[in-house]
Amino acid sequence: MGEAPAFCFDNLQNGFSFKSKGFETSADVGDKTFVIGGANSDSTSYIGVQIYDKTTCKWVIPTVLGTKPKPCKGHSTILLNEDRIMIIIKGSTPDDCIWFLEVDTKYVREQKKVLGTEVVAWSKGMRGDAEKPVVISGPSGVGKGTLINMLMKEFPSMFGFSVSHTTRAPRGNENNGVHYHFTDRSVMEKDIKDGKFLEFASVHGNLYGTSIEAVEAVADSGKRCILDIDVQGARSVRASSLEAIFIFICPPSMRQLEERLRARGTETEEQILKRLRNAEAEIEQGKSSGIFDHILYNDNLVECYENLKELLGLDGSAATNHKPYPDPKGIDLPLNHTVSKIDNKILINCGTPELETTSKNLIALDVLGLKGGAPGRTRGLNVYSIDSFSDGLNEKLS
Ligand code: ADP
Ligand code: 5GP
Predict the structure, then answer these.
(1) Which CATH class, in words, describes the domain spanning 134-321?
(2) What EC number(s) does this enzyme carry (predicted)?
């Protein structure tokens, strides 16, 4: 392709969204035109991305990060804040119809520097927000797993565990996909290189890491994510865009830590000694690094658990009033809708043209409260229906 496509306007409001032939849409950001789409042989839409640089008059194929939407029956495009393009997928399932192509966000700019190429990044849009994840760290044998299990048992609908990847061998009672994703080092190293991990670290001689998907999957299920990771991992998460609460668990003494590790009976003597050697540095860092918001001593287990619950605001009323986020209901869009943008609202007209002025045909997406984004999901999408043009946004769906 050597010349700019001949665009014809699709949705004229604001001149933001316009559509070319076939299944392509495009949006202008500065000197660049981002062209999204293309047709597959089975007449579904292929969601590719090309950039036309108006200063050089050249086409560029960017590095595309993240998981892109599935092939579909077409899509609409709206530019938001000059840094991301909202894509509304036609004929998809209600929970899979809103996507964002980030073209100039902080994450994309960072990746451009790292990769030295043009970069765009996909992020799936989700209704509702997610509660801040809880990062729990502490030396091996201090009781992190025990405390997390107690929390998940008492509040099964509230918390979900971020299942890490590790190259260490499973213990007798551990199941793949439940306690860890047990992985080959070469596979994990490739996934790390491909940007699939939020953090990773070498711990006691093995590689451990939290995939972006592990954390997002918990939030998608409407639960608050708990991460059991070492101090290096906590430091990386602290530096990432994930806002979390950081808790460090300390043993009452090194002697009791050793007793617990030995009593657990899951490591060889050599591994126990290695874990104890590392524990001293971990405790030192946990207490002094400024990474952690809270330090808890796990002397008496019941007391420590009560303190943990208090930190997380789990008094009786908070726990019983918990309503999972996000609303599991997605956005049900008919195939033939049109899209426009007014201020911070995206208006989706779901009716036939003759019915445009009657009620219930308009859905508004409020994009002011958007949070997160690539490499994870984009959350905080508020959805409203509009009863009539004069009434404005008077019925919140969620
Ligand atoms: P971690 O996940 O931090 O490596 P675990 O939760 O596996 O540690 O706990 C290590 C061992 O210590 C387990 O056998 C557990 O039952 C025991 N344990 C945990 N907390 C206490 C405590 N407060 N007092 C005595 N034993 C404990
Ligand atoms: P274990 O082998 O006992 O399950 O875990 C050993 C250490 O690895 C613990 O300190 C645990 O917190 C840490 N760990 C577990 N998963 C992760 C992870 O995904 N990332 C990091 N950085 N550390 C992890």
Answers:
(1) alpha beta
(2) 2.7.4.8
What is the rounded average pLDDT of the residues 144-167? 97
Beta-carbon contacts of residue 349 (< 8 Å; ≥ 6 apart): 337, 338, 339, 340, 356, 361, 362
359-391 pLDDT tens trace: 457 888 888 889 899 999 999 888 887 764 444
pLDDT at position 46, please? 74
With a 6 Å cutoff on the Cβ, whether 139 touches ligand 1 is no
The Å distance, Cα 382 to ligand 1 centre, comes to 42
Give the pLDDT confidence of 346-360 residue by residue, as tens digits. Answer: 888 876 554 444 445
Mean pLDDT of 55-79: 90
Ligand 2 pocket residue status of 229, Cβ below 6 Å: yes
Ligand nearest to the CA of 170: 2
* Cβ of 216 less than 6 Å from ligand 2: no
H-type alpha helices, 246-396: 254-264, 269-288, 301-311, 316-320
**The pLDDT of residue 392 is above 50:** no
Q: Is the CB of 380 under 6 A from ligand 1?
A: no
Distance between CA atoms of residues 333 and 137, nearest Å: 43
Q: How far apart are CA 253 and CA 140, in angstroms?
A: 13
Query: In this predicted structure, what is the pLDDT of residue 351?
Result: 66
Ligand 1 centroid – CA 135 distance (Å): 17
Nearest residue to 312 via CA among 164, 152, 183? 152
Q: What is the mean pLDDT of residues 90-118?
A: 92
Chain centre distance of CA 321: 25
Nearest C-alpha neighbor of 198 from the set 107, 318, 119, 326:
107
**Distance in Å, CA 106 to ligand 2 centroid:** 29
Q: Where are the domains of the chain?
A: 8-128+328-397, 134-321
- Which strand (E) or helix (H) includes residue 101? strand 98-102
User: Dihedral of CA 13/14/16/18: which sign?
Assistant: positive
Residue 272 has what pLDDT? 97
Residue of the CA atom closest to atom 18 of ligand 2: 209
